[in-house]
Amino acid sequence: MKRKKLELAITIVIFLVTALLSSSAAIFLLREFSKLTPAFRQGNMWVSAVFPAVVAECIAMVLSLYNGQYSFERMGILRYIGRAIKGTVYFVGVWGAMLLIQKNSISDSRYFFVTTMAFHFIILLVLLYAVQNYMIMNFYKTDAATLVAIIADRKSAAKASCAIKKDWSRKIAGIMLSGEERGSKNKKGLSEAVAKTETSIKGIKSRISGKDTELSPEEIDHVPVLAYGKEIVDCVRASAIDEVFIFSPEGDASRVEELIEEFAQMGLPVHLNLANVEKLERHLNDETKAYIPKIETRLGFIEKSPMAIFETPTVKLRYELLKRVIDVLGGLVGAVFAVILYVIVGIAIKLDSPGPVIFAQERIGKNGRRFKMYKFRSMYIDAEERKAELMKQNEMSGLMFKMKDDPRITKVGKFIRKTSLDEFPQFFNVLMGDMSLVGTRPPTVSEFKEYSNYHKRRLSMKPGITGMWQVSGRSDITDFEEVVKLDCKYIDNWSLGLDVKILVKTVMAVVMRKGSE
C-alpha cells in the first residue's frame, strides 16, 4: 500500500510539473521570437494560459491513470515513450476541448498550442524516465524505505529475498530462519554448545546493532541472517522493523499462529504466504501435465472470509472491444472479396459438380455454442455420408479427420482448398459474431461430443478463420493433441500483437501455398 501511494503521488507531481513547465516554457520561447498573438500578450498569461493547462492535466490524469498504470518498473525507453505519448494525447485532448468551450484567446495562438504539446511530451518523457529509475535504484537505500524481516526456512529464504528485492519501496533488514537453531548450519563450524552460548539476548542485540565483531553473521542472497528458531521473536522485538514476511512451509501452522500473535502484539503488519495455495498453483501450472491452462491466483473475500481464487487470465474489456473492431473491419473487407469470388468460383463449382455453391455446416463455437459455418463447397454433396467408410484412412490421430487424397474433394475443390479460397464465406461468420479473424478451429458436432475436459479449453475463445495451428505447419501436424496444445498456448498467451503476427503469417502461408493441403 505504501508503494502504490508513493507511486501515485509522485506520478501526479510529475504530470502537474510537466503541465506547468511545458506551458511556461512555451510562453517564454514564443515571447522571445515574437510568435504570440496580440490578444494573448494583452491578457494575464498565467491565468489564461498556464492555469487552464494545469487544470486540463488534472482531468487528463484521471483518464490516463485510472487503471493503475502509474506503477514504477524497470522497462526500456520505448515503453517510457509510449507512456509519454499516452499522457500527452490525453492532456492535449482535454486542454483543447477546454479552450474551445471557454473560447479562450490562446486558442487562436497555434504556435503556443503546438509548442506546449511538444514541450509536454519531452518533459514528461524525461521526468518519467529519470524519476522512476532514480526511485527504483535508490529509494531502498533511504530512511524512508520500509524495513522488512523475512522469516522462512532455509530452502525458501533465498527465493523470498529475491522476490522482495524487486519491490523498490522495501529494504530487507535481515532473514530469520525458522525450523532450525543456531549452530546447525554455522559457517565457522562451531560446536552446538558454543553456538548456543553466543545466542544470548545480549548477543542478538549486539548483532542487530552491528557491534558484534566476534562472529560474522551468515548471509543468504547477500542478506544477513539475524536469528534462528526460538530467537526470532526476541530479535524482531529488539530490531528496527516495519513489516514481517513469513514464508511458511506446509504443516507449520501452529508455529505460524504463535509468530503472528506475537507480532500482532507488537503492532507489526504481517504478510503470510499460503503454502498450500502455492503448492496447488505449482501443481496446476506444471508444464509436464497435459493441457492444464495457465492459472492465476488472487485473494478475494466472501463477507469477511478470505478465499483463494484460481482462474485463467481474463482479457480486459477494452482489448476485447478492440479485437471486435478489428474483426468487423477485416470482416467487411473479406466479405466484399467473398461476394466477388461467389460469382467467379461459384460458376466453376456449379460446372464441376452438382450442388450448392455455399456449404453450411453446424459447428461448435465459444464455450459450446452452436452456429452455421459457411465455406465454398469443395466436396461432393454426399461427402458426409461417405466419411464413415473413409475413417480407417484417417491420417490424424485423435478427434479430427484429414486425408491427403480425399476422394470426396472435387477438382475445383482441390484448387480452392490449396489457395484457401474456400474459407472466404467465413468472413460473414465474423461479421455475425460467431467467429473471429484469429482464434481456434471450430470442431464439428460429432468431434465435440467426444471431447474430454481439457479439449473444451480450446473453445474458451471464439473460433477463428486462422489461428496458431494454421500457421504452425498444419499439414505436418497429425496428432489432434498437438492441435489442442497449440490452441491452448494461443489462449493462454493471447494479445492483439499475437493476433497481428498470426494474420501476417497466414497471408504469407496463403501466398506461398504452404500448409493448406
Which helices and strands appear, and what pairs or packs with what?
Blueprint (H helix, E strand, L loop, with lengths): L1 H31 L5 H5 L2 H20 L12 H26 L7 H29 L7 E7 L1 H12 L4 E8 L14 H6 L3 H8 L10 E2 L2 E6 L3 H7 L4 E5 L5 H14 L3 E3 L2 H10 L11 E7 L2 E7 L5 H36 L5 E7 L5 E7 L6 H8 L20 H8 L7 H7 L3 E3 L6 H5 L3 H4 L7 E3 L13 H13 L3 H16 L6
Parallel strand pairs: 1-2, 1-5, 2-4, 5-6, 11-12
Antiparallel strand pairs: 3-4, 7-8, 9-10
Using brief descriptors, characterize the structure shown:
two-stranded antiparallel sheet, 19 helices, alpha/beta, 12 strands, six-stranded mixed β-sheet, 517 residues
What can you tell me about this protein's structure?
This protein is of the alpha/beta class and 517 residues long. α1 (2-32) packs antiparallel against α5 (110-138). β1, α6 and β2 form a beta-alpha-beta unit. It has helices at residues 2-32, 38-42, 45-64, 77-102, 110-138, 154-165, 192-197, 201-208, 232-238, 253-266, 275-284, 317-352, 383-390, 411-418, 426-432, 445-449, 453-456, 480-492, 496-511; strands at residues 146-152, 170-177, 219-220, 223-228, 243-247, 270-272, 296-302, 305-311, 358-364, 370-376, 436-438, 464-466. The strands form 4 sheets. The chain has a 6-stranded mixed sheet, sandwiched between helices. It contains 19 helices and 12 strands.
